[in-house]
Each structure stands twice: as C-alpha cells, then as structure tokens.
C-alpha cells in the first residue's frame, strides 16, 4: 500500500494537466487517471445543460426531502428558489416567545457566491443529497491537496479551502471523505481524531493542570502538564482539543 501511494505521488508530481474544466466554485480538477472509467463520473468531460437523460443519476441527486431548517448542518446541500446551495455555517438563536430562528451562511454551488438567509426553526427546507467518496491524502502543496481513490486509481486535486480549518491536520496517507454534487467536489472532511507530535510546550502552565503546546502542524492546543515535547497525542479535529496520549 505504501509503495503504491509513493508511486502515485511521484506520478502526480510529474504530470501536467492543462485542462481546467471544473467551475470557479472549487477550482478543482482531476489531474491524473490511472484506470479507464467514464469521464462522466467526474463531471469534468461531459456537460448536459440540465439533460438528466444524459446522466440519469443526476436526477437522483436532485431528488431531496423536506426537512426542518433546525436540522441543517454545515456541509448539507439544499435547494432554494431553484438554486442549489451548500450550507457553510449555521447559527441557531432563540427569540423568546417569538420562537427560534436559524441563520444560514450559504454558498451557491454554481456561482460560488455566498449569502446569508434566515429560516424559522420549523420551516421546511428541501435538502439535496450528495455523493460521498473515500480518498487517501497523497500530499499538500501551496493551496491544494492531492488525493487518490485507491479503488478506482483516480487522483484528484482540490483546494485546501474545501476542508476548512481541518486542512491544517491533513497529512500523507490520511483517509478523508469528499462530498460531490453533480460531479464537483463541494467539501472535504477528515477523521474526528488524529495523532499529532508535540513540537514544543510552554514552560509555564496556563492553568494548574494544562499548558500550551505547539503541534507538528503549527497549531496550538492545551495539553496536561505531564505531556512533553516529542510525544504523540490524539487531538479532536472538530474543536482542537487534547484527547489522550497516543498508544505506543
């Protein structure tokens, strides 16, 4: 497995992919393909102008279900006024007797433009389901991350921004998930817990029980005072908190 990943990395660095057929939403592109498959699967070689007969699975993706707005989370995809939006952020507020309200930051899948809309907590919204695929991280370079689907031997380059703040935890051979809509990557996610190395710790403890530590990816976390530089620790990637020492 490691030899295959190393080979894929060398190939991906050597190949030059001149086409940029993905939309400005993601600025992503498939940059190398090591097996034969339908270009339609990538959404990069065939456009249908809304013709679902050319891509029947597209009709399935557009078929959503009505959900209450309160159940929406970042990464969900919804349809509103004939447009498809990805939920970037969701904030729930209580208005006393007026009921709860949900403020959503949305990104238009086609244009990439962002806007903020408010919904009543019980307001019905049509959620659109997306395709999720597993990839292995090859490496990161500049503002991009290079991935490989080891089942299809398909390599993919996507912007680091699709992983949000979690991009700082990306490393070689990490298993990640990519969410696609209409063949285009919308967002990426990493494991909830990852192992990092402590590069240095603060001499003086911030509290009697915890002190600041710098991880090998440059992030700062609070760790117990007994943790020292050079140790491996498990970190929660959702909130950047210390979980435990890594098993040796």
UniProtKB/TrEMBL annotation:
Q: Where is each Elongation factor P C-terminal domain found?
A: 194-245
**Which InterPro entries has this protein been placed in?**
Elong-fact-P_C, NA-bd_OB-fold, Rib_uL2_dom2, Transl_elong_fac_P/YeiP, Transl_elong_KOW-like, Transl_elong_P/YeiP_cen, Transl_elong_P/YeiP_CS, Translation_prot_SH3-like_sf
Give all residue intervals belonging to the Translation elongation factor P/YeiP central domain.
132-186
Which SMART domains does the record match to this protein? EFP (SM01185), Elong-fact-P_C (SM00841)
What Pfam families does its record include?
Answer: EFP, EFP_N, Elong-fact-P_C
Q: Which PANTHER family match?
A: ELONGATION FACTOR P, TRANSLATION ELONGATION FACTOR KOW-LIKE DOMAIN-CONTAINING PROTEIN
Q: Which family is this protein grouped under?
A: Belongs to the elongation factor P family.
User: What is the protein's name according to its record?
Assistant: Elongation factor P
Annotated source species: Salix suchowensis
